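dumping this here so i dont lose it
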């Protein structure tokens, strides 16, 4: 999938020229430049912090392999830094969320992604800073117990019943490891233990569990391909909609959007673009960076369209370019769009 940094570079190399002669167009052009510069600068800083987190989590896994005690002092400092960064910035942290994860780094990267998304959901729900600190700390090591079953997980072919049951116990292993430390409070420990559970459980467990599912669906694994963001949203609403507290899942969809950041959409004009920002409370009206014309040719003078303000055309539906060559093929959008609208409608009325 094309990365946000590549999009910014493409936009900068082509020159985002002013459209039209009206002052509003000049303002829009300047906004595009400002957004591009801000996103790129934030991406660089977030990448540094992200890599720091990957190293921290990888070190924890290695310490468990070597039967050593984990030093969580650095982890606590990191969670505070990561939280402060997420609180200050907008949704740019999610722009690199869909980048491909290498097999060697899957667990640390998955854990980082889940911690970032969990924190965003917590922010959208209005949690205070103390609660967010505990949430991000819990999410960061929610899969620590996977190290106890990594030989099974990395095994080729289908797993036997006993193997599957052992893998399914990894949240319990995570809680057992973390309970030997003073890293988490009781709610955090219970949330780690129950993040795959679907019965009554702590609120943090609902948040981490939802972030965990969405992250897993949108990234490839050895036994399955990644699904496009809009398909992941539809699958979660259809299969897991009743498994989470209603306000958690509605807040998630409202803020991340039916068309999440990083997903591709086709406009009623035939143009194709990538979603760069969701408009909170309006899941069908994100901001889109238009990249291709109706002939699927790259546009020289690209533009950003805010569908909260646009009334002359609209988003026709999602385009899954993960299974097609760039954006040259037509996507079967009508069925997907109808399904998403129906499922979103049922959620909104609940």
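and the seq i came up w/
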């Amino acid at each position: 999938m094309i990365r946000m940094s590549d999009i910014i570079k493409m936009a900068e190399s082509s020159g985002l020229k002013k459209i039209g002669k009206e002052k509003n167009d000049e303002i829009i052009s300047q906004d595009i430049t400002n957004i591009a510069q801000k996103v790129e600068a934030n991406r660089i800083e977030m990448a540094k912090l992200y890599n720091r987190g990957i190293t921290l989590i990888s070190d924890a896994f290695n310490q468990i392999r070597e039967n050593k005690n984990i030093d969580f002092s650095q982890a606590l400092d990191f969670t505070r830094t990561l939280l402060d960064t997420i609180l200050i910035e907008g949704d740019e942290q999610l722009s690199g969320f869909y980048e491909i994860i290498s097999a060697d780094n899957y667990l640390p990267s998955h854990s980082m992604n889940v911690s970032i998304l969990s924190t965003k959901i917590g922010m959208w729900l209005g949690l205070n800073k103390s609660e967010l600190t505990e949430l991000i700390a819990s999410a960061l090591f929610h899969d620590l117990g996977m190290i106890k079953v990594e030989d099974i997980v990395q095994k080729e072919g289908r797993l036997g019943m006993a193997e599957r049951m052992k893998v399914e116990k990894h949240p319990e292993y995570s809680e057992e490891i973390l309970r030997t430390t003073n890293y988490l409070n009781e709610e955090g420990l219970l949330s780690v233990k129950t993040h795959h559970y679907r019965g009554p459980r702590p609120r943090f467990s609902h948040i981490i569990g939802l972030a965990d599912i969405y992250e897993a669906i949108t990234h490839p694994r050895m036994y399955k391909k990644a699904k496009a963001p809009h398909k992941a949203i539809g699958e979660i609403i259809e299969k897991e909609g009743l498994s989470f507290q209603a306000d958690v899942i509605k807040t998630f969809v409202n803020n991340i959007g039916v068309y999440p950041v990083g997903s591709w959409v086709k406009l009623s004009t035939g143009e194709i673009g990538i979603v760069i920002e969701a408009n909170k409370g309006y899941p069908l009206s994100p901001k889109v960076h238009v990249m291709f014309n109706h002939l699927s040719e790259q546009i020289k003078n690209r533009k950003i369209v805010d569908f909260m303000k646009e009334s002359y055309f609209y988003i026709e539906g999602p385009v899954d370019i993960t299974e097609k060559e760039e954006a040259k093929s037509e996507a079967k959008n009508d069925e997907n769009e109808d399904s998403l609208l129906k499922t979103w409608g049922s959620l909104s009325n609940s």
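Residues 32 and 190 are 44 Å apart (CA to CA).
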